[in-house]
Amino acid sequence: MSSLDFRLYGTREPPAPARRLTAGPLSVDLQDGNLRTIRYRGHEVVRAIAFLVRDKDWGTCAAKISDLAIHENEAHFRITYRASYSAPDGARLFADIVIEGEAERIRFAADFMAEGDFETARAGFTVLHPIVGLSGQPVTVRHADGSIEEAVWPQAIDPWQPFKNISAITHSAAPGIKAETRFSGDIFEMEDQRNWTDGSYKTYVRPLALPWPYRLESGAPHSQSVEMIVSAETAAPAFSRSDEPVDLTLSSTSYRLPDIGVGLRPDCMEEEASHLPLLAEIGARHLIAHYDPLAGHGIDALRHYASVARQTGLKMTLECAVPCRRPLDEEMAELAALVERADLPLDTLFVCPSVDRQSTPPGSAWPECPPLENLYQAARAAFPGVRLGGGMLSYFTELNRKRIPGDLVDYVSHCTNPIVHAADDLSVMQTFEALSDVVASARAIYADKSYRIGPSTIAMRQNPYGSATKDNPTLSRIPMANVDPRHNGLFGAAFALAYAAATLPAGLELLTLSTLAGPFGLIPGEGEPCAAGAIRPLGHVIGELGRLSGQPAWALTSDAPSDILGLAVEGEEGVFVLAANMTPYERTVRLPGPASRVSLLTTESLGEGFRPGLASETVALPPYACLKALISH
Length: 633
What we know:
This protein has 10 helices and 35 strands. The chain is an alpha+beta fold. It folds into 3 domains: 18-232, Beta-galactosidase, Chain A, domain 5 (Distorted Sandwich), CATH 2.70.98.10; 258-550, TIM Barrel; 556-631, Immunoglobulin-like (Sandwich). Helix 5 runs parallel beside helix 6 and helix 9 runs parallel beside helix 10 (537-548).
């Protein structure tokens, strides 16, 4: 891998290569043995068709591909290979794959068998339909019993499965273009993956109501297939991506840029204590201090937080995973006594039952947990005069499925994570298509209640869907990893800026996109693109957001939102435009007015931050670069 790619992604591992295959008007990208971005006449029809194997904790078992053969001509392509998957206990699964494509048809078939009893949470096909252009539109679902359901794709994010027992889905991909996707070999159902900020509706094998993990017995044969058939009117339009500049336009809003928070963690106390001046440098307004008694956190962590609060003067939130194993008034009174002993000043207290950090999938029994009303009552009694927050220490999924009584708290909060299901670069950046729907759905549930998000990072802080997050010693792109190298490169800066842009319409009071130290933090470690003494690239973005927090915000509309996202903020000198290139390609943007100053954060300026550039109304953004421009009103 080149040094340029290392500065982009923070890892020596190259992105997975993709090969474009075409059959007449149909095109697909073959990546890691699966199909991505399936287009007809340039329109995305299906986002992905994949044969996937999960371990018992929902971790993805990487496919080792052998005997790959690809045959292609103008009208047809055929792909065959053998894939092997290894479970953590050493059992293996082998799949023989055949993929055939022609002008208006694709068939993806898998014959698979375990060698040794293979424990899995899911083994089989998933099909992803895109969100953009489909949400709220008609869809026809054929069920396994032959019945037909005329429905619409969910617009508000559905916490449960919108469709079950599916044998086929027919939808309109564009005016004049229809596609039918057929499923065979097992029972399929659909979930709204926007819950996890995936930019897709996912149809998957094996209902969640069935027990999991389950075993594939050694030597037992299994077969599944997915077939997609396209029908098009002769007048159906073709779509071609333009290389013209991406136009950015401004419109007024009633929003203000939210305050910027930074997380603190008990396992990073020494490093946090030595880097406190950085908090003022980036304009942080609030600290989110994590506290989990069941993880052994106690008075030492609280005293550290108290020291940080005294030295920085910043507002402090204690986010507490409440054990709920004894009477709640006892647990909360004990916490209050520890906070008093530590002399920790609290601006707010966020409480969440520890058990609610684990997801309860559809069909599963809810774990024992006291009523949230009782928890909030006990917290208010123990901490009079302190603002109280409720929600989830985990993700919007869990909040959407277990909606808290919002009238009993002062604010609602949750996190998100972009690598729950997939961790390739494209999938991570496509999460912003769903993030805007996440905050809109939260607003629909909780109306004008004060709303916070974070800490939300690329790497996974905790795994609600298994026993632990995944270790990542090789710094790869893997789902559910507790370390993600892209957090350390320019990619992480673009992710942070796009995140702030996608959540701006929510009118957040606080947005937290990092911790101070550790793998989710601002401070680089050894062997990273930024040397010791600097800050990670996303720190420069967070600094710009922090310095502008509280200022009136403008909506910044991009005519290519899958490539460029940004926001604008009112300043004394004019309007500051901040925008990120979310692609591995250079993209040119046309600003909404003449710029008196332009600065860029690129791979050439990772250590120093935004570097002045040529003031122009049209600016070329290198891959994953971030832009700051001052334009006149």
